[in-house]
Write a structure and sequence with these properties.
Blueprint (H helix, E strand, L loop, with lengths): L1 E7 L3 H11 L5 E8 L6 H14 L7 E3 L13 H4 L21 H11 L5 E5 L4 H9 L7 E7 L15 H5 L1 H8 L5 E4 L1 H4 L3 E2 L1 H8 L4 H21 L4 E2 L3 H8 L4 E6 L1 E3 L10 E3 L11 E7 L1 H12 L3
Parallel strand pairs: 1-2, 1-4, 2-3, 4-5, 5-6, 6-12
Antiparallel strand pairs: 7-8, 9-12, 10-11
Bound molecules: beta-D-ribofuranose (BDR) and calcium ion.
Calcium ion (CA) binds next to loops.
GO cellular component, one term: cytosol
InterPro entries: I/U_nuclsd_hydro_CS (IPR015910), Inosine/uridine_hydrolase_dom (IPR001910), IUNH (IPR023186), Ribo_hydro-like (IPR036452)
Keywords: Glycosidase, Hydrolase
Length: 311
């Protein structure tokens, strides 16, 4: 199995991404989960990460709390999408498993320092603050990272928090800029992909039909989460943004993209946080990321439902 660290701000879709990873031990070994401030403040994201581990029957997973605010400026949250707790929808018990004492950034640095080159894959599902801080504090960890597979950005689908920016990148553009300039191989799941991974009514029914606590919780989460997208975009169900990352690590053949140059706009008056993807190769700048554009949604939901059924 591929060794991964999930960096996350749960978030209903983060929760589903974590459940998919924990349900797939033959493909993925989760070395730890690092929480970051994003959808809701850090005190809630680290708690939600532990709630999700317990839902998966994995209280042994180590969860670390990381950065509570972006590198520059104030934290922007998304309660309007995810609800007050960040995990609104299902009624899940408070976690009893402990939060680790170490800071998430220390855990990232120590784990990568100790690992052989190219062994550990990072999976950021929220703002890139923890990852950028680790790269900034310990530059030598960059070659240790096999790949960073992240959810963030948009190209043809433009933005969801401003007209041009996707939430995860917008919350901490300075951090994103460090990550995109790091030289680490990057695979990006932008809105262009995730807005095609929609939990339609039959897909939601399939989660519920699993007849398990995890299936019920995922159905209740996506029921809640879809209210925002249906109202805002008229989309047919909630987009499962973050699970695209863990699904890609299990079934890369479900995704299509291009290896292109992606720069992060940190200054634009109207475009701060935009992922400027050179889709047509007109800039002459060197490619630094595989920017995905398409997903086999039927295959993705078949995989997800099947794996969730194991929990
Ligand atoms: C991203 O922002 C968050 O609200 C979601 O969890 C996802 O990571 C989508 O723009
Ligand atoms: Ca997220």
């Amino acid at each position: 199995p591929r060794k991964i660290i999930i960096d996350t701000d749960p978030g209903q879709d983060d929760a589903v991404a974590i459940l998919l990873a924990l349900a797939s031990p033959e493909d993925l070994e989760v070395l730890g989960i690092t929480a970051v401030a994003g959808n809701v403040p850090l005190a809630l994201t680290q708690k939600n990460a532990r709630i999700v581990c317990e839902l998966a029957g994995r209280p042994d997973i180590r969860v670390f709390a990381g950065c509570d605010r972006p590198l520059a400026g104030a934290l922007v949250t998304a309660e309007h999408v995810h609800g007050k707790t960040g995990l609104d929808g299902p009624a899940l018990p408070d976690p009893t498993m402990p939060l680790q004492d170490a800071h998430a950034v220390a855990f990232l640095i120590e784990t990568l320092r100790a690992a052989p080159e190219g062994e550990v894959t990072l999976c950021p599902l929220g703002p890139l603050t923890n990852i950028a801080t680790a790269l900034r504090e310990a530059r030598e960890i960059a070659p240790k990272i096999r790949e960073i597979v992240l959810m963030g950005g948009a190209y043809f689908e433009v933005g969801n928090i401003t007209p041009t920016a996707e939430f995860n990148i917008f919350v901490d553009p300075e951090a994103a800029s460090i990550v995109f300039a790091s030289g680490v191989p990057l695979t990006v799941m932008p809105l262009d992909v995730t807005h095609k991974a929609l939990v339609t009514k039959p897909r939601n029914d399939a989660f519920r039909a699993l007849g398990t606590a995890a299936g019920d919780a995922v159905a209740a989460m996506t029921d809640f989460f879809e209210r925002f997208d249906r109202k805002k975009y008229g989309s047919d169900g909630a987009p499962l943004h973050d699970p695209c990352v863990t699904a890609y690590l299990i079934r890369p053949d479900l995704f299509r993209g291009r290896h292109v140059n992606v720069e992060i706009e940190t200054e634009g008056r109207f475009t701060r946080g935009m992922t400027v993807a050179d889709w047509w190769g007109v800039s002459g700048r060197a490619p630094n990321a595989t920017f995905m554009g398409d997903i086999d949604a039927a295959g993705f939901f078949a995989l997800l439902t099947d794996r969730l059924g194991r929990l």
